[in-house]
């Protein structure tokens, strides 16, 4: 039903040019073109049902309740709260009996799914569910039969789903769908059951039904009688994809339905095993019917020639996704052949590009995404000049997930009415000046996950002409900064949504934001932003409703930040302002937070205080406040405590002037530190000597570069030995043939471990820490981490050289991390081991270690 509803809306939009096309397309994209599994937020845990043994959780507004329990849930749960939606999943109940659902008359949606022990549902169990509109009894593999009277009482049921149960004979099911029992039924999905055949009288119990949608996908069907669907007089959508039906059989029942006045609108023939080309006779018959939406996805048509399709005047949508096509004839989709074609889907194929293929003049949506070939045989996508010259009505163009390397000022000529352009997840590294200039009405541009700044910075001339643009997505494009003297956003005065998450930005200026007076959503999450010292939003006059700053490097609230937050919150009327600082590195101590607390108490508005004290962002340090809310720390601050802290600090300045106290204190401190850290002190002195020697050599006219015995010293735990062996194989046996130092192989037998570790660190250009859960637990590894950090600090000489390389393997529990490890993981960019992308990982590591110092 989603496909029919959304594509019908698209056609209506085209006809009447009303509504928000961007919002519509996002919904269409998420739910049909690229569906993603929906996950409900269920923060409320209900009391366990002792009678059934089930656990239940609910959404904030109690609209949705989900009950589960695995081996503890043996009966249908007793739910007393009134919700619209109830989902019962993964239980071990074997039956549902009369009375189990009697108190659920308020339900509108009921899902009984993945209960693999369920064998029997007693007739009359749904008798009180007169308000139910959707029912799903699916993925219950031991449910082989249902009673003819099982759905008694469901007089308002519109959608019935019985997917992937244990049904083997459709004749055992259809009596339960009798029109007298389900008078309001509009959609029936019985896919993924093993029916094999549909006899002539299969749907006789549904005579007089108002059923409009029937799904029979993946049922192992090899026979459908030509008269089977004749009782379904109002049927509009028929989905029979992924079965083993030949084209003659399909043609026979389509002809019968047409002759009997059943006007199908949607026909799904996906995954039917058609080879080389769509069956010509079948296409000729479809061309004479009322079918508007034809789904041929997941078949195999390597070549779509000029004569592949007959003239099909009624077709408005043609789905050719994942049909392995590698070439399309120049006249295959010309306007004469498809005069009413509005939506053409060609994603997931092996097309090398668009090479002067005339498209229907009326085309509104063209999906050419994911034509990148396979990893072993990649394709580079190319678009000829003047390809879209005749596509003046095109509203949506999807070129995402293609290997498009560059676009130029001629690429999009002709698309003067285009409103949505998707170019994300490609290899786009060059945008020619004026590339988007022909797109005068473009409202949404998605450039996410492209290496845009691999070769040069973004300039305003690249984005010239985007005066109507409302949404710009530049997520994960390698952006480090924007330039005030060449502000790309001056080209986009109507921008309302700007997505800049997952880049490498340390800051953003008020000058950059000034042109964006209509901005409503700004996403700066997953960057490297720190606390800013000059007002951004107050100075620029930009006032977004939603501001996302999650997972940056913000450690405290400067006064400029407080002024900006106050400015964003004030005078917003009924608008809900969302400012998100989650997953930053807030330091919760007097020096960082006392000024914020004092300003809030003396000058902060009620809205500003409410924002801080009800927020959920957490402290990162010190340890006593780690993972606790900043709001809780602010609430716990005692004014006298922090004032005393300041006074004590001032008094200590006077105390330090007393020679006797200073002398005693120093002696005690020196003796204690010398004894406790005697081994570290020896190492510090050694490093100091080297550092002094480095500084001395700076005055020489031609300083000599230090030669190292090893390229890197590897610090690791024995539990990670297999990973280290793999590292040695990758780095030492392949160019540039690096030399690693590992204690099992390179330490001299009989030497002291501590001496060997210190010498090896000093003789290595880099120190690699293999940080895992086992590493964090190991005392030796913690000691080596300390030495590596001291080594880095003592040898700093003002250059970009940093000898410390961090590799994180798997999840590391926070409770095992020392202060040094926490600091390193939060302040340094580390390498994350990814088994699914090993080649890229080793390449990046190799490039770092071979750098000259």
Automatic annotation (TrEMBL):
Top-level taxon in the UniProt lineage: Eukaryota
One record GO biological process: toll-like receptor signaling pathway
Keywords: Glycoprotein, Leucine-rich repeat, Membrane, Receptor, Repeat, Signal, Transmembrane, Transmembrane helix
Stored InterPro entries: Leu-rich_rpt, Leu-rich_rpt_typical-subtyp, LRR_dom_sf, TIR_dom, Toll-like_receptor, Toll_tir_struct_dom_sf
Secretion signal, residue range per the UniProt entry: 1-19
Main subcellular location of this protein, as a coarse class: membrane
Domain TIR stretches: 708-849
Protein name (Swiss-Prot/TrEMBL): TIR domain-containing protein
């Amino acid at each position: 039903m989603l496909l029919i509803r959304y594509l019908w809306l698209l056609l209506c939009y085209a006809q009447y040019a009303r509504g928000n096309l961007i919002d519509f397309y996002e919904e269409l994209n998420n739910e049909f073109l690229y569906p993603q599994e929906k996950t409900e937020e269920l923060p409320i845990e209900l009391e366990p049902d002792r009678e059934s043994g089930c656990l239940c959780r609910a959404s904030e507004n109690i609209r949705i309740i989900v009950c589960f329990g695995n081996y503890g849930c043996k009966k249908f749960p007793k739910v007393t709260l009134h919700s619209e939606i109830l989902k019962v999943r993964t239980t071990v109940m074997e039956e549902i009996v009369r009375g189990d659902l009697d108190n659920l008359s308020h339900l509108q949606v009921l899902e009984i799914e993945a209960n693999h022990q369920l064998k029997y549902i007693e007739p009359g169990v749904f008798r009180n569910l007169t308000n139910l509109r959707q029912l799903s009894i699916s993925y219950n593999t031991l449910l082989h039969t249902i009673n003819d009277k099982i759905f008694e009482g469901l007089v308002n049921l519109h959608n019935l789903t019985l997917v992937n149960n244990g049904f083997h004979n459709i004749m055992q099911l259809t009596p339960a769908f009798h029109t007298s029992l389900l008078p309001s039924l509009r959609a029936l999905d019985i896919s993924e059951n093993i029916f094999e055949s549909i006899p002539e009288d299969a749907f006789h119990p549904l005579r007089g039904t108002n059923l409009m949608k029937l799904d029979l996908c993946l049922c192992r069907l090899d026979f459908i009688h030509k008269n089977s669907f004749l009782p379904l007089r109002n049927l509009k959508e028929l989905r029979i994809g992924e079965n083993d039906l030949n084209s003659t059989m399909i043609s026979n029942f389509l002809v019968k339905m047409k002759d009997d006045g059943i006007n199908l609108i949607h026909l799904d023939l996906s995954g039917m095993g058609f080879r080389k080309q769509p069956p010509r006779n079948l296409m000729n018959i479809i061309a004479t019917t009322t079918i508007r939406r034809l789904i041929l996805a997941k078949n195999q048509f390597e070549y779509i020639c000029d004569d592949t399709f007959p003239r099909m005047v009624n077709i408005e949508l043609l789905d050719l996704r994942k049909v392995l096509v590698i070439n399309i004839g120049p006249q295959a989709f010309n306007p004469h052949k498809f005069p009413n074609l509005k939506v053409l889907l060609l994603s997931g194929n092996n097309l090398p590009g668009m090479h002067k293929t005339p498209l229907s003049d009326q085309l509104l949506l063209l999906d050419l995404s994911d034509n990148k070939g396979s990893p072993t045989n990649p394709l580079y996508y190319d678009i000829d000049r003047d390809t879209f010259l005749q596509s003046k009505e095109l509203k949506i163009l999807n070129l995402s997930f293609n290997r498009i390397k560059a676009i130029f000022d001629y690429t999009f000529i002709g698309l003067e009415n285009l409103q949505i352009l998707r170019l994300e997840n490609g290899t786009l590294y060059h945008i020619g000046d004026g590339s988007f200039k022909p797109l005068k009405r473009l409202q949404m541009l998605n450039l996410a996950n492209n290496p845009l700044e691999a070769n040069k910075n973004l300039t305003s001339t690249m984005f010239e002409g985007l005066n109507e643009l409302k949404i710009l997505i530049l997520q994960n494009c390698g952006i480090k900064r924007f330039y005030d003297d060449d502000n790309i956003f001056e080209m986009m005065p109507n921008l309302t949504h700007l997505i800049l998450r997952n880049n490498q930005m340390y800051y953003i200026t008020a000058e950059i934001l000034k042109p964006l007076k209509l901005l409503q959503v700004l996403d700066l999450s997953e960057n490297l932003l720190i606390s800013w010292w000059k007002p951004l939003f107050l100075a620029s006059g930009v006032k977004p409703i939603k501001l996302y700053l999650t997972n940056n490097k913000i450690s405290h609230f400067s006064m400029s930040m407080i002024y900006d937050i106050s400015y964003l919150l004030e005078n917003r009327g009924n608008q809900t302002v969302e400012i998100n600082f989650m997953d930053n590195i807030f330091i919760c101590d007097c020096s960082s937070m006392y000024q914020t607390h004092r300003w809030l108490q003396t000058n902060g508005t009620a809205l500003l205080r409410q924002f801080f004290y009800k927020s959920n962002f957490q402290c990162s340090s010190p340890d006593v406040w780690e993972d606790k809310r900043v709001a809780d720390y602010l609430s716990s601050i005692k004014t006298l405590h922090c004032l005393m802290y300041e006074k004590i600090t001032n008094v200590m300045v006077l105390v330090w002037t007393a020679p006797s106290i200073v002398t005693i204190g120093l002696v005690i401190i020196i003796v204690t530190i010398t004894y406790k850290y005697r081994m570290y002190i020896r190492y510090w002195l050694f490093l100091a000597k080297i550092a002094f020697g480095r500084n001395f050599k700076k005055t020489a006219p031609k300083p000599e570069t230090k030669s190292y015995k090893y390229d890197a010293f590897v610090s690791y735990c024995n539990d990670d030995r297999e990973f280290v062996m793999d590292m040695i194989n990758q780095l030492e046996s392949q160019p540039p043939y690096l030399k690693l130092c590992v204690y099992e192989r390179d330490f001299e037998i009989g030497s002291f471990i501590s001496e060997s570790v210190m010498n090896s660190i000093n003789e290595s250009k880099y120190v690699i820490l293999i940080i895992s859960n086992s590493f964090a637990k190991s005392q030796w590894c913690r000691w080596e981490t300390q030495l590596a950090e001291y080594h880095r600090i003592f040898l700093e000489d003002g250059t970009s050289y940093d000898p410390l390389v961090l590799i994180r393997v798997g999840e590391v529990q926070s409770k095992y991390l020392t202060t040094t490890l926490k600091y390193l993981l939060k302040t340094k960019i580390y390498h994350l081991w990814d088994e699914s992308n090993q080649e890229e990982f080793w390449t990046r590591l190799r490039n770092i270690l071979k750098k000259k110092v």
